[in-house]
Amino acid sequence: MNEAKHIWWSGPIGGLGNRLIAIAAARACVPDRPINFHWINDASCPGEFHDLFKASPDWIVSPTPSSNCVMVETHPWEPFSIYEAFNDRLALGLSSAEFSHRFIHTLRTLPFKDEFPQHAKVWRDSFKSDRLTGVHLRRTDRAELHRKQFRAFLLRKQGLNRELPFYLNAMYGLLPEAIVHQYENVTIGMLLRKHQTHSYVLFSDSAASVAAFDGIVQKIGIKKASISDRIDNSAEFALRETSLKGALLELLCLAQCNTIVQSNRASTFSLVAAIIGAKPILTPQTRYPFWQTIEAQTGYMANSPVFSVTNTKSN
User: Fold this and answer.
1) What is the pLDDT of residue 205?
2) Where exactly does CATH 3.40.50 map onto the chain?
């Protein structure tokens, strides 16, 4: 292994789900060495690293490497690409199966500031239901992204997006956004009814999407959890904010639900919530390669409760 103690890592980018995955992957590779890393405060993640995490000498935000650091350049968030880069650059000798166990455990034990998991627990305890389903709608950028990807595929400029099956790629890429959203709402409503959901809470960053979803789903006969479902009304607080802190609080509240539904299978936000909470996802299995690789390496899906401290191997 390289003898330099400190590592400079190119760091994570993208939304909160992507960044949490990347951070957990990097730490799973080197659990006992300080990591200097680049953090970008931008529209996809509007806040600083230390807004979310406890101060630690093992995490040092640094946009440029110092002379005593080993530099590791990685994919912005894909965990197995990060693993391969760290493994090769530092000669770790870490197997992909061992990394899989470490990665899940690390993601579930990220050192968030205490206020976030505490607030999430208070929020969940305020509901009477033991069958509360968290529904995550990702609407703000996904439809347009799929549209661009599918058009590029039709023009033979890139391969087909592997996150979704062909018919969904075509639907997201070609149909008007309103029809796509209506299809998602009805599909989710039928899932909730099939699984006999007692009540649901909705996580979304679009007030219009919330209203449209509630209108369709409640016609199907599924009720939205309300203040009357709560034990203590004083526990009510706003979840969605435009800040990074608000996004983390929402993710941890989603992780506290008994089951999780996502509007499509291309949301690392809801996948991370399912992993952290070890909660089942009612929608069809995600097609993200990392999810499938973890299952192939360990025999369990990434959100399985089987991953724990006792399952985590050490190098």
Assistant:
1) 75
2) 115-298
Backbone angles phi, psi at 92, to 5 degrees: -75, -30
Please give the DSSP secondary-structure letter assigned to residue 234: G
The whole-number average pLDDT for the span 61-69 is: 87
Judge whether residue 236 has pLDDT over 50. no
Q: What is the pTM of this model?
A: 0.86
Flag whether pLDDT at 294 surpasses 60: yes
Sequence-distant contacts of 176-182: CB under 8 A, at least 24 apart: 177/143, 180/143, 181/139, 181/143, 181/209, 181/212, 182/212, 182/216
- State the virtual CA torsion across 271, 277, 282, 287 in degrees, nearest 10: 30
Residue 48 tokens read as 């600083």
- Please name the amino acid found at residue 263: S
Mean pLDDT score of the chain: 84
Instruction: Tell me what percent of the chain is helix, strand and coil, each rounded to the nearest 5.
Output: 45, 10, 40
Q: Which CATH class is domain 115-298?
A: alpha beta
CA 154, 293, 141, 40 torsion: positive or negative?
A: negative
Tokens of residue 123, six digits? 């929020």
Higher pLDDT, 125 or 206: 125
**Structure confidence at residue 142 (pLDDT):** 60
**Residues linked to residue 281 through DSSP beta bridges, in sequence order:** 260
Cα–Cα nearest to 122, from 253, 300, 304, 287 = 253
The residue ranking higher by pLDDT, 163 or 156, is 156
Helix (H, G, I), strand (E, B) or coil at 84: helix
* Cα distance between residue 146 and residue 149, in whole Å: 5
The three-point CA angle 34-68-77 to 5° equals 50
E-strand stretches of 25-164 = 35-37, 59-61, 69-72, 132-136
